[in-house]
Design goal:
With 167 residues, the protein is mostly helical. The protein has a domain at 38-149: Four Helix Bundle (Hemerythrin (Met), subunit A) (Up-down Bundle), CATH 1.20.120. It is 74% helix and 0% strand. The model is unreliable at 12-35 (pLDDT under 50).
């Protein structure tokens, strides 16, 4: 009973922390820009011309649609795999075929991301790609140093909060 209470309190506390987190563009931790202004900022930072900006918007939209479809297909395939595994008698051939389908869907999603990245690189000049590479490197450094985990300073703090523990 005490353990359940601790879990419930921890979940409530983490929910309150996330609810209090400012939305994009709001408060001191938001990026200060209204939602949807990312392309405008990117256009200015990279010096994109109108044709490049339009092509990047198109690629981003197509990639999002594709990712949503692929994610849904993958979730359905995984659900079907669980159903096969939880059947009263397990059909090993069907399970094997479903595992192959899940793997194929994961591979397809990876190929789509790679193809999209290549298409994006073709739109940008070498100078613009260098700016993007520098931003990506900075983002990875921020993640490694725990600077981008929402209201928590580190991944360890996030896990402690979810478990209801403090230092």
């Amino acid at each position: 009973m005490k353990k359940q209470l601790v879990v419930i309190v921890g979940l409530l506390a983490s929910g309150v922390a996330w609810a209090a987190w400012p939305a994009r563009g709001e408060g001191p931790r938001g990026n200060g820009r209204p939602q949807g202004s990312g392309m405008i900022h990117l256009k200015q930072e990279l010096g994109l011309n109108d044709a490049q900006a339009m092509e990047l918007r198109k690629l981003k939209s197509e990639e999002k649609k594709s990712a949503i479809r692929k994610r849904a297909d993958l979730q359905i395939a995984r659900l079907e795999l669980h159903e096969l595994l939880n059947a009263s008698t397990v059909d090993e051939k069907a399970v094997s075929a479903k595992v192959k389908e899940v793997n194929d869907l994961q591979g397809s999603a990876l190929r789509a991301r790679v193809e999209n990245r290549i298409a994006l690189q073709k739109v940008l000049t070498p100078e613009q790609r260098a700016i993007i590479d520098a931003r990506l490197a900075q983002g990875l450094e921020d993640i490694e140093k725990g600077r981008v985990l929402g209201p928590f300073t580190t991944a360890r703090e996030a896990m402690r909060a979810l478990r209801g523990k403090t230092r």
